[in-house]
Amino acid sequence: MNKVAFVTVASFLTQRKIQLQSAGDSQHIYYKLKSREEHLADALQNEYDVIIVGGGATGAGVSLACANRGLKSIVLESKDYASGASSKSTKLVHGGVRYMQQVFQLSEKNRMEKWELVAESLRERSNFLSMCSYLTQDFPTLIPCTNLFDLGYYYFGSLIYHCVYLYYQTGGHTFKPPRIVGKEEIQQHFKYAKCNYGVIYYDGQFNDARMVQELLVTSSLKGQNMANYVEVKGLLKNEQNKIVGVQAFDKIGQKQFQIKGKCVVNATGGWADNLRLMDDPTVSKRIVSVAGSHLTMPQKYGSRHWGYLIPKTNDGRVLYMVPWQGNMIMGTTERKLENPTHDPTVSHEEYMWLLKSFCDEFTVDASEAARDVKSKWCGVRPLVYSSNALSTKEVSRTHEIEVSKSGLISVMGGKWTIFRLMGEQTVDKVQELIGNKQKRIENLPKLVGDWTQFDHRKEIQIMMKMFDLPQSYAAYFLTTYGDRAYDVLKLIYENPENKESLHPQFPHTVGEVLYQIRYEQARKPEDILFRRTRLGFLDQNAIFTVYEKVFQIMAKELKWSDKFQQQFLKENFEYIRKLEF
Ligand SMILES: Cc1cc2nc3c(=O)[nH]c(=O)nc-3n(C[C@H](O)[C@H](O)[C@H](O)COP(=O)(O)OP(=O)(O)OC[C@H]3O[C@@H](n4cnc5c(N)ncnc54)[C@H](O)[C@@H]3O)c2cc1C
């Protein structure tokens, strides 16, 4: 990086800052973010209104709702943010067309519950995309049809789905109505598709782990605290048996400490029963953990813009194929887990089922498709148990908020799409408990990268020119960080070392990793490889290429001793290998 370029970048940033300041938006560039250590230092001094246990979609949503109602909260995450289900989803912001289908099946027992689920999710789908335009987009999904009866059935089903959305629409984002498409158009998108016609309907998609990060950064800028690698090991109670805090363990600093709070929210997803039992060992379990697996395939098997939904595979299950970050992801399976581990692996059976269902639908060679699999991953879906459930399909897909006698607020079940609603409803319960009357804010809260409401296309052009970036790289920074991209690029351009690329096929550089360590609390290589960047989900080989470099950057930045490095390198590499990537 030469001096001239550096001066140009610096002057551009100053100019931009002046522009934003003159528009009354002084804080929109150079966001001042706290480090993990600063958050922990706050935790030792503060007494919180709310202690949120779990740093996935649910915990992050509760944190944002607290921020917007003037409550002081801290999120404690025992591993990394979004390392549970929240980074391993299908990445859909959706109402759930399959539940819509169930509403009209006479054999379905809970048709009213399914209707409410779809209506609620469709309302939240618009809100989700409006809150965070840079990390989300809508996209058409094809339902392939083999006969005219199916075509009519899925078209009218999709039309009702669209009408429900129109009726309940609250957010600013609008979705197009469904339409019928023929073979020619289908072949332009899916050259291996066998079907002759089908129905297109619209849903949204997003970058799940990055969304948790953006939610937490937004909350942090609004005064909330958060720390990853802090496990809640116990609940502190007063003489009246009411919860007054938690016993926590900092796995990085290897320190045990107490945090005081007026109430504790249990947002631990598939592990919610652990905290419920910690509070009261006599309660019955409510969570059914269901594993869901995905494969990542090269773009050539799918479309750059369209998704593909098989509503009924050979064994009656639903299968999604979704374009994501220049690849195609396909999933998901459902396998009940008795004792959910944090990182379940894709079973051989699931792997074979996914490949077989894919090959049944497209004219592709099965062994070539198997060779082309780029990555696979598995997540734990936390469903709420209903006692007469016989299979995972009968377990409730809605969410529930339970308040225990001692004041533990457990928010269970639900899905990514409705995280905002779950957060708001949980904070309603918090307020009842602690006697706070602050109302919900009326306008939808925007996430930090959207605060300046920029024009995406124009901004990409500016970035390309200013930083001499190819279009795809400029688009990457913008669709990952929103207008925070300028802060990341500033660090990358601060010195020539920071510009060094990690991998020729990806836009990641040393400077970006430094940003993620300093301002996004990345503390282990897998935090960078799987969640701050999405390399591990996109290309399993790439992570082995960049692992050592990422390790070295972290060792230098975090000042790891030689002894620690030797021990950690071995343990950590083993851990990553175990993930089967
Ligand atoms: C395969 C799959 C596909 C999905 N696809 C979609 C989709 O396309 N769209 C959609 O809307 N939803 C989807 N979902 C659902 C969605 O991903 C989940 O509902 C959501 O991510 C759950 O978030 P959570 O925060 O409740 O749980 P998690 O993300 O699992 O977070 C819980 C966190 O709590 C932490 N924790 C546990 N115990 C402790 C403790 N003692 N102390 C501190 N921290 C603790 C864990 O480490 C974990 O990070 C999918 C789920 C799966 C599994």
Helix-strand layout with pairing:
Blueprint: H1 3-22, H2 36-45, E1 47-53, H3 57-68, E2 73-76, E3 92-93, H4 97-103, H5 111-131, E4 136-145, H6 148-168, E5 179-182, H7 183-189, E6 197-206, H8 208-221, E7 225-227, E8 230-237, E9 243-250, E10 255-266, H9 272-279, E11 287-298, E12 307-310, E13 319-324, E14 327-331, E15 335-337, H10 348-361, H11 366-372, E16 375-384, E17 399-403, E18 408-413, H12 419-434, H13 456-467, H14 471-481, H15 485-492, H16 510-520, H17 525-532, H18 535-538, H19 540-557, H20 562-578
Parallel strand pairs: 1-2, 1-10, 2-7, 4-12, 10-18
Antiparallel strand pairs: 3-6, 4-6, 5-6, 8-9, 9-10, 11-14, 11-15, 11-16, 12-13, 13-14, 17-18
List keywords for this structure.
alpha+beta; 42% helix; glycerol-3-phosphate dehydrogenase; oxidoreductase; globular; 8-stranded mixed beta sheet; 581 residues; FAD-dep_OxRdtase; FAD; 10-stranded mixed beta sheet
- Based on helices, strands and strand pairing, what is the structural class? alpha+beta
Number of beta-strand segments:
18
Helix content: 40-55%
Tell me the span between the first and last alpha carbons.
34 Å
Q: Low-confidence parts lasting 5 or more residues at pLDDT below 50?
A: 20-28
The overall pLDDT, averaged over residues, is 90
What radius of gyration results from the CA coordinates? Answer: 24 Å
How many helices in DSSP terms? 20
